[in-house]
């Protein structure tokens, strides 16, 4: 596959390179001295036939598969085929554009037969038209090949799903039945022959790499690969660790970067070593189809096992406990230390044997036996790990270490692993070997995904905390550039880390369900792209490039609205003749309209087409009918209050027994401040639908200070009336017009009730005025020897 890809790229570069250069370097044709244009090179019919033959071979290989694992390699090859077709199509586009420009310069052939055009121009137009037609036809053929390959990937997914379902429900002998192990100890003649054929191909490949004249170079490559995988890995790990220690700031970022660097060093050196080994074996003669299939699957198994060991070493960090990211006790970490290597080594050996069986086409009995052995050994390792971990934690708790009890997440992981082992044991005993192997593989895959994404999320969190920290140069630069406070920087760090970790968590969940052991990075990206770029998102026209535009539009829009509102509140509106209530209403209305406009621009930048939002509108209409009607009603009422202004900020109102000053009119509710400085939140719809008393509407409202006093029957009413009027008249807050007055309210056996009334300039000072008047009236009544009446039966 790799050599075919290299050959295809070589053909594309050789054939298309000059044309691409000519497409960018060519000048428009001179119509005065135009000659016949030289033909532009392109993709020949032989190249198209080679692509079609390659696709047909892939289809034939897929149609001959008989188990789930055999489809993983062909799926990668189809993806590579699509990439090759895309490269060829992209290389032809400059030619198409150049020919179109040249034809547009020449223009259409004249229809006037009286003045025919020059022969050389007509010949040039005919030549260019012929070349453009060839390029268009080639592009159409490439598009058809790509569509056929895309349909083939969909077909592969359906086949894999069906094979997986049939394999998981397939029941064979139990592992306790001797018949289950018979094919391993006494294989059939066909299986022996296939095993010998595989060994013969291995021998031939080795002999070709060990031919005279090639032995030194082969030995050098193999030794170099071994050195890189052993010594090189340790040196890379040590160098990256020193880099993180001396270059990364002290704190959490240094710790997480050390763990990430440890895993990265192992992966990078393993990849280089594998490429050197592959080149040593195939630098002259490509691998046979059987060995090529095995090579691809073996590479996937190696990467999976390397991920197990590298993540285990990075997260456990037994040599440097202070670098450890998860909260794991030292005793538990030391107990877990040998298990990642043991599990990876066991899987590498067993999976390699199983892939040999698949590649050589051995019988299903051999394949099932291999799956059974894999499930048994992996299950034994995991059960031993769980038992030893539980034993160590129990000993720590008994010794008084309460932190060893673990947290909720650790308990969930332990429970899931235990249930998986129980299911695997039951499946093996009842004959569902494929189901047991599937459960154990999924458990190992879950460990790889959860550990990997946990490491990435920790690096992202610590990186954001460092980037926005006001103590470091990056945070200081952002603070100076954006003009924000330290608190805002901290909020930006939390939000950025939160959104990033949420995105990684979503990708982790998707990866957990769309991948598995042996899944390549290309397959993962393709599956994730299929889910995230599904039909629903394609209908909304949401693409990654639009997401960046939408985020920028949202951030810039919010910043502009806040800046304009500050300008309105602090500079423009205070210099107008409008009252403060009107200014506050206009500022709030501007903000609401501005935020709505920003949302519309954000959706537009996102590429959302409003014709495709009918389902959202339908969902919202149902939601409004059931649960959002009150919110919508209050929102509309808020807009009415801000436009019609029956009440405004600063008015003294009374509604439903609540009386106070309006502090703020929001979109959903209005804030009313009572006399005790407390705030009452009243929904806007109540201010519209209920009877409301606006005391200060119009700006000329007066307050009424009324006191009702009861005197004994033997008083002189005129004397008391004169005393009350004098008290009101002499008070500084009582208005002369309307003048205060005293009214005879009631006559009862208990006494005479007199009511005195006066007007003040504002309703807000009524309470203080009445208090002052009562103090003065009682003082003057005491001086005149007049007492208030006592109720009958009172002391």
TrEMBL record:
<dbReference type="InterPro" id="IPR010920">
    <property type="entry name" value="LSM_dom_sf"/>
</dbReference>
<feature type="domain" description="Mechanosensitive ion channel MscS">
    <location>
        <begin position="631"/>
        <end position="696"/>
    </location>
</feature>
<feature type="transmembrane region" description="Helical">
    <location>
        <begin position="216"/>
        <end position="236"/>
    </location>
</feature>
<dbReference type="InterPro" id="IPR011014">
    <property type="entry name" value="MscS_channel_TM-2"/>
</dbReference>
<keyword id="KW-1003">Cell membrane</keyword>
<feature type="transmembrane region" description="Helical">
    <location>
        <begin position="257"/>
        <end position="280"/>
    </location>
</feature>
<keyword id="KW-0732">Signal</keyword>
<keyword id="KW-1133">Transmembrane helix</keyword>
<dbReference type="GO" id="GO:0005886">
    <property type="term" value="C:plasma membrane"/>
</dbReference>
<feature type="domain" description="DUF3772">
    <location>
        <begin position="142"/>
        <end position="200"/>
    </location>
</feature>
<feature type="transmembrane region" description="Helical">
    <location>
        <begin position="613"/>
        <end position="632"/>
    </location>
</feature>
<feature type="transmembrane region" description="Helical">
    <location>
        <begin position="368"/>
        <end position="387"/>
    </location>
</feature>
<dbReference type="GO" id="GO:0008381">
    <property type="term" value="F:mechanosensitive monoatomic ion channel activity"/>
</dbReference>
<dbReference type="InterPro" id="IPR049278">
    <property type="entry name" value="MS_channel_C"/>
</dbReference>
<dbReference type="InterPro" id="IPR052702">
    <property type="entry name" value="MscS-like_channel"/>
</dbReference>
<dbReference type="InterPro" id="IPR023408">
    <property type="entry name" value="MscS_beta-dom_sf"/>
</dbReference>
<dbReference type="InterPro" id="IPR022249">
    <property type="entry name" value="DUF3772"/>
</dbReference>
<dbReference type="InterPro" id="IPR049142">
    <property type="entry name" value="MS_channel_1st"/>
</dbReference>
<dbReference type="Pfam" id="PF21082">
    <property type="entry name" value="MS_channel_3rd"/>
</dbReference>
<comment type="similarity">
    <text>Belongs to the MscS (TC 1.A.23) family.</text>
</comment>
<dbReference type="Pfam" id="PF12607">
    <property type="entry name" value="DUF3772"/>
</dbReference>
<feature type="transmembrane region" description="Helical">
    <location>
        <begin position="582"/>
        <end position="601"/>
    </location>
</feature>
<feature type="transmembrane region" description="Helical">
    <location>
        <begin position="339"/>
        <end position="356"/>
    </location>
</feature>
<feature type="transmembrane region" description="Helical">
    <location>
        <begin position="408"/>
        <end position="432"/>
    </location>
</feature>
<feature type="signal peptide">
    <location>
        <begin position="1"/>
        <end position="25"/>
    </location>
</feature>
<dbReference type="InterPro" id="IPR006685">
    <property type="entry name" value="MscS_channel_2nd"/>
</dbReference>
<feature type="transmembrane region" description="Helical">
    <location>
        <begin position="502"/>
        <end position="522"/>
    </location>
</feature>
<dbReference type="Pfam" id="PF21088">
    <property type="entry name" value="MS_channel_1st"/>
</dbReference>
<feature type="transmembrane region" description="Helical">
    <location>
        <begin position="444"/>
        <end position="468"/>
    </location>
</feature>
<feature type="domain" description="Mechanosensitive ion channel MscS C-terminal">
    <location>
        <begin position="708"/>
        <end position="788"/>
    </location>
</feature>
<dbReference type="Pfam" id="PF00924">
    <property type="entry name" value="MS_channel_2nd"/>
</dbReference>
<keyword id="KW-0472">Membrane</keyword>
<feature type="transmembrane region" description="Helical">
    <location>
        <begin position="542"/>
        <end position="561"/>
    </location>
</feature>
<protein>
    <submittedName>
        <fullName>DUF3772 domain-containing protein</fullName>
    </submittedName>
</protein>
<keyword id="KW-0812">Transmembrane</keyword>
<feature type="domain" description="Mechanosensitive ion channel transmembrane helices 2/3">
    <location>
        <begin position="588"/>
        <end position="629"/>
    </location>
</feature>
<dbReference type="InterPro" id="IPR011066">
    <property type="entry name" value="MscS_channel_C_sf"/>
</dbReference>
């Amino acid at each position: 596959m790799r050599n075919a890809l290299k050959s295809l790229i070589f053909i594309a570069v050789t054939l298309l390179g000059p044309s691409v250069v000519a497409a960018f370097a060519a000048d428009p044709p001179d119509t005065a001295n135009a000659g016949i244009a030289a033909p532009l090179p392109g993709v020949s019919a032989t190249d198209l036939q080679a692509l079609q033959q390659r696709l047909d071979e892939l289809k034939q290989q897929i149609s001959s598969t008989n188990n789930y694992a055999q489809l993983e390699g062909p799926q990668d090859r189809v993806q590579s085929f699509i990439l090759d077709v895309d490269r060829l199509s992209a290389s032809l586009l400059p030619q198409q554009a150049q020919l179109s420009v040249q034809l547009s310069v020449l223009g259409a052939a004249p229809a006037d037969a009286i003045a025919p055009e020059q022969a050389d121009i007509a010949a040039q137009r005919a030549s260019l038209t012929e070349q453009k037609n060839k390029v268009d036809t080639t592009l159409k053929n490439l598009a058809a090949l790509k569509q056929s390959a895309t349909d083939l990937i969909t077909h592969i997914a359906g086949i894999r799903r069906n094979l997986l379902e049939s394999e998981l429900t397939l029941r064979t002998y139990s592992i306790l039945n001797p018949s289950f192990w018979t094919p391993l100890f006494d294989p059939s003649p066909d299986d022996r022959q296939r095993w010998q054929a595989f060994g013969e191909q291995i021998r031939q490949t080795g002999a070709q790499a060990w031919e005279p004249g090639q032995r030194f170079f082969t030995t050098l490559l193999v030794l170099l690969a071994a050195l890189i995988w052993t010594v090189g890995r340790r040196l890379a790990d040590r160098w990256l660790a020193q880099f993180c220690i001396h270059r990364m700031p002290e704190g959490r970022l240094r710790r997480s970067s050390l763990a990430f660097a440890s895993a990265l060093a192992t992966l990078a050196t393993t990849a280089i070593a594998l490429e050197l080994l592959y080149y040593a074996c195939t630098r002259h003669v490509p691998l046979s189809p059987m060995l090529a299939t095995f090579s691809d699957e073996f590479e996937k198994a190696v990467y999976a096992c390397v991920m197990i060991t590298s993540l285990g070493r990075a997260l456990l960090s037994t040599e440097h406990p202070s670098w450890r990211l998860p909260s794991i006790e030292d005793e538990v970490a030391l107990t877990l230390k040998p298990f990642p290597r043991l599990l990876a080594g066991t899987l590498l050996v067993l999976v390699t044997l199983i892939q040999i069986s698949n590649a050589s086409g051995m019988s299903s009995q051999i394949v099932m036996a291999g799956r059974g052995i894999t499930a048994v050994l992996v299950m034994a390792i995991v059960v031993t790990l769980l038992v030893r971990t539980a034993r160590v934690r129990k000993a720590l708790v008994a010794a008084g270490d309460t932190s060893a009890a673990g947290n909720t997440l650790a308990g969930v992981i332990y429970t899931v692993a235990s249930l998986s082992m129980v299911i695997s044991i039951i499946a093996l005993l009842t004959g569902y070997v494929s189901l047991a192997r599937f459960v154990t593989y999924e458990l190992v895959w879950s460990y790889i995904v959860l550990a990997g994404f946990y490491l990435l999320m920790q690096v992202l969190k610590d990186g954001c905390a460092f980037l926005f920290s006001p103590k470091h140069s990056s945070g200081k630069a952002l603070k100076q550039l954006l003009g924000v406070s330290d608190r805002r920087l901290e909020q930006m760090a939390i939000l950025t880390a939160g959104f990033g970790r949420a995105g990684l968590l979503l990708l982790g969940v998707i990866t957990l369900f769309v991948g598995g052991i042996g899944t390549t990075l290309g397959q993962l990206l393709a599956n994730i792209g299929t889910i995230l770029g599904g039909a629903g998102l394609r209908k909304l026209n949401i693409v990654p490039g639009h997401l960046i535009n939408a985020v920028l539009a949202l951030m810039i829009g919010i910043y502009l609205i806040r800046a304009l509102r500050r300008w309105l509140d602090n500079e423009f509106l205070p210099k107008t003749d409008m009252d403060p209530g009107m200014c506050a209403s206009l500022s709030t209305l501007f903000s609401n309209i501005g935020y709505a406009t920003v949302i519309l621009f954000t959706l537009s930048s996102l590429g959302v087409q409003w014709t495709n939002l009918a389902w959202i509108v339908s969902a919202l209409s149902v939601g409004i009918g059931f649960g959002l009607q009150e919110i919508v009603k209050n929102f509309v009422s808020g807009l009415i209050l801000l436009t019609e202004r029956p009440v405004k900020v600063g008015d003294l109102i009374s509604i439903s027994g609540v009386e106070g000053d309006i502090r703020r009119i929001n979109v959903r509710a209005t804030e009313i401040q009572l006399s005790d400085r407390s705030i009452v939140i009243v929904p806007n719809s109540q201010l519209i639908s209920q009877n409301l008393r606006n005391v200060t509407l119009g700006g000329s409202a007066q307050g009424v200070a009324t006191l009702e006093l009861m005197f004994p029957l033997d008083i002189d009413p005129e004397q008391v009336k004169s005393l009350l009027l004098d008290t009101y008249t002499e008070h500084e807050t009582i208005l002369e017009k309307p003048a205060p007055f005293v009214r005879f309210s009631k006559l009862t056996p208990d006494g005479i009730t007199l009511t005195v009334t006066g007007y003040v300039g504002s309703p807000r000072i009524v309470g203080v005025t009445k208090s002052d008047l009562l103090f003065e009236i009682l003082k003057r009544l005491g001086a005149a020897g007049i007492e208030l009446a006592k109720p009958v039966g009172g002391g």
